[in-house]
């Protein structure tokens, strides 16, 4: 797990030994997308603020979703603003169970950054471990990193539909949104036909730390995930689905992210399923 996650104490130790550790503060949430005020109030010493809306998402037509992936030149410009150079170790964190930090992890890994780690337990874990915060902005010297995307598997809308029928497509939103009971953001309520539901917020414990790999594996196997079958994940707009990619990878799977997620699917004329159990309308229980 050490190549994906890092504890607060490990981060302190690593930073003391290696001057090429770069820390990114990726605070964002639906009800408060601009995390800069909270960042300025207190952040891990040396951490640079990352604007998810502006730097970890692109702009596109509604059918591309609310948070389409940024193009590589834009991501590279942002990474250089964060002070990143080739060969740096990058640690990402947020203040909400690593949901948005995982988006940064996915994008940087996909773009060729070898050593990217998620701070396990997020900012709360840092504070609980007794480590200090600092206030104000951190503006590093511009970096020179070179990025090239395409290293992590992802799904187009057609591929997501196919995985839902031929493998396991996991909808990691809250159950009420999966069932279509409510839809506060996107134009249609429900889920991709055949998708199964497993809320990604339950992949962490009460302190916001990822569950052990064997517990994560058991959770995903309950909804049919198998290492020898395609496994895809989606959420509302592709942000928290990255959190599920982290959890699935820790559990030993090779997940594929559907970046457009429900916000893209619901803006097309694709069929929509509602109701049903968490195992989807096509099955009564876990796949054999």
TrEMBL record:
InterPro entries per the UniProt record, alphabetical: Rhodanese-like_dom, Rhodanese-like_dom_sf, Thiosulphate_STrfase_CS, TST/MPST-like
Record domain Rhodanese: where: 17-135, 163-274
Gene3D superfamilies xrefs: Rhodanese-like domain
Tagged with keyword Heme: no
CDD domains in the record: TST_Repeat_1, TST_Repeat_2
Pfam families in the cross-refs: Rhodanese (PF00581)
An example molecular function term from Gene Ontology annotations: thiosulfate-cyanide sulfurtransferase activity
Domain of life: Bacteria
Repeat among keywords: yes
Keywords, sorted A to Z: Repeat, Transferase
Protein name per its UniProtKB record: Sulfurtransferase
């Amino acid at each position: 797990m050490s190549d994906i996650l890092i504890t607060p104490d490990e981060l302190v130790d690593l930073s003391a030994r290696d001057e090429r550790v770069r820390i990114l503060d990726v605070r964002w949430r639906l009800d408060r997308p601009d995390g800069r005020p909270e960042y300025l109030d207190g952040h891990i010493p040396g951490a640079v603020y990352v604007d998810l809306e502006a730097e970890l998402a692109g702009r596109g037509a509604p059918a591309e979703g609310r948070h389409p992936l940024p193009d590589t030149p834009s991501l590279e410009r942002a990474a250089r603003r964060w002070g990143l150079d080739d060969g740096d170790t990058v640690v990402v964190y947020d203040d909400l169970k690593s949901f948005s930090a995982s988006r940064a992890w996915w994008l940087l890994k996909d773009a060729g950054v070898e050593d990217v780690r998620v701070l396990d337990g997020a900012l709360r874990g840092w504070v609980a471990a007794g480590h200090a915060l600092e206030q104000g902005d951190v503006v590093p010297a511009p970096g020179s990193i070179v990025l090239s995307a395409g290293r992590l598997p992802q799904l187009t809308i057609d591929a997501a539909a196919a995985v839902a029928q031929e493998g396991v497509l996991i909808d990691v939103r809250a159950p009420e949104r999966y069932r279509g009971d409510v839809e506060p953001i996107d134009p249609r309520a429900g889920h991709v036909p055949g998708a199964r539901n497993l809320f990604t917020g339950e992949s962490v414990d009460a302190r916001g730390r990822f569950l052990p790999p064997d517990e994560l594996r058991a959770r995903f196997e309950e909804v049919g995930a198998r290492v020898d079958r395609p496994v895809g994940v989606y959420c509302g707009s592709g942000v928290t689905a990255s959190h599920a990619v982290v959890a699935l990878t820790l559990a030993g799977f090779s997940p594929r992210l559907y970046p457009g997620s429900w916000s893209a699917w619901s803006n097309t004329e694709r069929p929509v399923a509602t109701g049903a159990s968490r195992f989807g309308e096509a099955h009564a229980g876990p796949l054999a």
